[in-house]
Amino acid sequence: MNNDPYTLAGEAAAALRGAAGLDSFDVALVMGSGWVPAADAIGETVSEIPFADLPGFRAPAVAGHGGKIRAVRTAGGRTALIFLGRTHLYEGLGVDAVVHGVRTAAAAGVRTLVLTNAAGGLRPETQGVGDPVLISDHINLTGANPITGTTFIDLTEVYSRRLRDLVREIDPSIAEGVYVAFRGPTYETPAEIRMLRTLGGDLVGMSTVLEAIAAREAGVEVLGVSLVTNPGAGLSGEPLDHEEVLEVGRATAARMGVLLAKAVDRL
């Protein structure tokens, strides 16, 4: 297997195009915990390719992640790649494994990327469980970066204002906020949640930011959408549980799918 992550992504993209029977793709979506059922609403499935069939991919280790890439044709005639699952930094496979899917999508010609995730809400007074929130910016507390060397990438606007405006045309009520990423796999402590609120965070999770940085390096425009699945630690008095995250995703899958389906044809 090639050790260069960019070459490996090119090989995976070639294999993906061949397996899907399509030469190009308009948009890619990465579905976070609990979001997988929403994929069914986005369009008609052309093909599904298991991660294990493509160079550099591994099956997801987290419950609620599907482990396949679905090629879809939308109602508006667009061709979308839907990543049903992702690799997380806490799995110990390294940063390149975390962003391999994004680099593969970019190598396959994708110029617009939608990153979804399940997130803890840091502002329960304004963002309730089950609410989608557009990511306007992020704070990277993972201690990692997918870019090494002297490649300097401007992150003034990681998450496209243009794409956020398009989503707000579909749903004017949708909120937006700052997503904070930790490495995981432990959930945050109440003290950390208080710190994040002070820093200006609105959402917290264990994914997305490294993928977004890799996408920007590749010149791909990024839309980020979090689904608030629980209040942050200490804000509700209840312990945090991954099954709760998945349950909220299942309960809101139809709404999320409709939102994404409408958005994809406008991006």
TrEMBL record:
The keyword Acyltransferase does not apply. PANTHER family: METHYLTHIOADENOSINE/PURINE NUCLEOSIDE PHOSPHORYLASE, PURINE NUCLEOSIDE PHOSPHORYLASE-RELATED. Homotrimer. Phosphate binds at residues 33, 65, 86-88, 118, 207. Its EC number is 2.4.2.1. The lineage of its organism: Bacteria, Bacillati, Actinomycetota, Actinomycetes, Streptosporangiales. The purine nucleoside phosphorylases catalyze the phosphorolytic breakdown of the N-glycosidic bond in the beta-(deoxy)ribonucleoside molecules, with the formation of the corresponding free purine bases and pentose-1-phosphate. Cleaves guanosine, inosine, 2'-deoxyguanosine and 2'-deoxyinosine. Keywords: Glycosyltransferase, Transferase. A purine D-ribonucleoside binds at residues 188, 230. InterPro entries: Nucleoside_phosphorylase_d (IPR000845), Nucleoside_phosphorylase_sf (IPR035994), PUNP (IPR011269), Purine_phosphorylase (IPR011268), Purine_phosphorylase-2_CS (IPR018099). It catalyses: a purine 2'-deoxy-D-ribonucleoside + phosphate = a purine nucleobase + 2-deoxy-alpha-D-ribose 1-phosphate. Belongs to the PNP/MTAP phosphorylase family. Residues 27-264 form the Nucleoside phosphorylase domain. GO terms for biological process: nucleoside metabolic process. Gene3D superfamilies: Nucleoside phosphorylase domain. Pathway: Purine metabolism; purine nucleoside salvage. This is Purine nucleoside phosphorylase. GO terms for cellular component: cytoplasm. GO terms for molecular function: purine-nucleoside phosphorylase activity.
